[in-house]
Predict the 3D structure of the following.
Amino acid sequence: MEQKAKKEKVPRQPMPEQEPKVRAKNFQEVPLGYPPDIAMREASRCLQCKNPTCRTGCPVEIDIPAFINRIKEGDFKGAIAKIKEKNALPAVCGRVCPQEVQCENNCILGKKGEPVAIGRLERFSADWERAQGEVSIPEKEAPTGKRIAVVGSGPSGLTVAGDLILKGHDVTIFEAFQIPGGVLVYGIPEFRLPKAIVAAEVEYMKKLGVKFQCDMVVGATVSIDELFEQGYDAVYIGVGAGLPAFMRIPGENLIGVYSANEYLTRSNLMKAYLFPKYDTPIIRGKNVVVFGAGNVAMDSARTALRLGAERVRIIYRRSREEMPARIEELHHAEQEGVELLLLAAPLNFIGDGDGRLKGVRCQRMELGEPDESGRRRPEPIKGSEFETECDTAVIAIGAGANPLLTKKTPDIQLNRRGYIIAEPETGKTTKKGVWAGGDIVTGQATVILAMGAGRMVANSIHNYLTLGW
Amino acid sequence: MYKILKKQELVPNIHLVKFLAPAIAKKAQPGQFVIITVDEKGERIPLTIADWDKTEGSITVVFMEVGTTTQRFALLNTGDSIDSLVGPLGIPAHIEKVGTVVCVGGCYGIAAIMPIARAMKEAGNKVISIIEARSKYLLFWEDELKSVSDQLIVTTGDGSYAPQGWIPDQLTQIFEGEEKVDLIFAIGCTFMMKLASETSKPFDIKTIVHLNSIMVDGTGMCGCCRVLVGGETKFACVDGPEFDGHQVDWDVLLSRQSGYQDLEIQSLQNWESRNWRRTK
Ligand SMILES: Cc1cc2nc3c(=O)[nH]c(=O)nc-3n(C[C@H](O)[C@H](O)[C@H](O)COP(=O)(O)OP(=O)(O)OC[C@H]3O[C@@H](n4cnc5c(N)ncnc54)[C@H](O)[C@@H]3O)c2cc1C
Ligand code: SF4
């Protein structure tokens, strides 16, 4: 009997979740996390490869087999310490990384069956540590007397700050919003990334000695040159993408048409989902359409459901295969009742004569030859126009580079699309003493890539401060 | 936290608040605004900077009580603090010598137009200021505006003070008179700015308006404040707030400003009912 149980292959452990019907009406987190025994069982599936390919799939190269082995042995403290050698925000990454194209995509087990649930185990370790209430503070190197200004408190800025403070530098983060965290607080909703987790990470940074100056719009309240005048030795720009893309079609200014940035900022940062307990209002549409197919679109659609929509449709001009969202998000959205209207694109919004949105006219598409992005280009089908009703529309078709800061700093060179040009190996910009990374360099990408850039920049800044430009 | 150095109700429902905000005071220019959040539950609301003092490190805003957030703001007093204060935002007013400038202000705009009138005067222009209010008891800063204008015209809707009438009546009188007007600045409620622009259009006098669309972040991140100007979508927070009044699509602006009316009433009712209970 014993022997048989040992031989039996342990399947990938599902994570307990709130029921779709229940969770579609609340803003609490959807996946509930592994309990310790399940985490250990999942960890036991890892083959402990000599040449772990999962690791090369992780942009920050976490020693994945090592931390998983510690979980298997019940050494949760050791596991989180191992992860933190490489990743300062594991509670966040375990929840929002697109594991299916990164670490888990490379897992050997995935070739024949299902990969080890690396993201869930990472999340487990971080949650376990937070629940213990005692987050260990690593030792800092002796003060160097050098001062660094980090502009933007998203994942890339937090990483730069966290790394450099440990090296003994004096770090201040300047953030435009009243709360630090970047997209993690204003974009990604509570049901996917509880704000208490982001707040805990920020608290941790404060404990390390990082100073936060919120309500500071660099480029308006203070310029980069003024930061140098104030005695900063190096500046990191991690301001994110931060410019909403509109579709430039008629009717876009009707009441009820939102950019995803506005819709999600109202709901997340300003807590409009708790209106009228909180003052910021949001239109609680009954019949909502969302344009786009990335994580931002999924977050908008699922937020709409939770705000009381009876029907939510995602309208996308390509097919399911091209959808850039994390698999889990698409899966969760569909489970909750979000409908997909694929191969269709909007032509114009329709108003009710009183300035309010009442419908949208669309056109069917078909896929043609691949374009620069390698994805097949959607082409309109003649005569396929159709109208459909909706009272709220959210445009989640991407973001651009916000020019507020860069316009005021002409000696930082930009690319054609307004993103900052930074050296790939260091993150150095064309302005001496200034680095950039994250979405403002790459365009909207991922949390872990922004963190990877932050790590690289932190090393480069440290070299600069000790060796020179 | 941002400390309130002075709080004063100028006239019923219109309040002046002076904050300690040295970084903003150092940078403020005429025509710029700040975004404030009263407390954790408050909305982010844009307010034009009505005055600033670099030495004291202070900025002053003047606002009207309209919704829940502004009502809660109005309840604060000297010595209290608010959660968040960001600025200075928006493109500053373009100040240069053009000749004769008419500066018009209504309701909170009476204060908001001050820095522009003062700067235009300092730049060597002849400044005629016109302020309007529904009734005499709603007028304020008459002396202040007088001190930065070559001429100040006051008009009240009910005729309780000075001539009966509104800003457009006064503008028409000026345009039909001897004076050649080169530029107009208008700040106040949207309806007044719309009428001022419509009045000046036949006379072909450039009219700069200060759009006050609803905003969230105020840095061009959300696009909530978008307005249609000359057929193009612009963001009032970063492309403005100043625009050519003859190019603005006023219907779109007025419509978008009304987008949350029902929710604002709901919010206010909720807040008031909860507060009555507390005081009883
Ligand atoms: C709704 C949504 C869902 C997403 N979901 C995922 C996901 O599931 N997984 C994933 O990996 N990625 C996801 N992403 C992408 C990911 O969040 C970003 O790639 C990442 O946050 C970029 O980090 P960053 O540090 O470059 O910038 P950001 O997170 O954008 O932070 C930039 C910060 O800088 C501040 N700032 C901007 N301008 C100034 C200024 N002038 N002065 C001072 N501060 C300024 C901003 O207020 C902001 O706080 C999502 C993005 C969105 C919008
Ligand atoms: S950080 Fe992201 S990619 Fe790296 S192991 Fe964790 S979940 Fe995978």
Observations:
- The pocket of iron/sulfur cluster (ligand 2) is lined by residues A 58, 60, 62, 64, 87, 93-94, 97, 99, 102-103, 118-119, 122, 448 (CB under 6 Å).
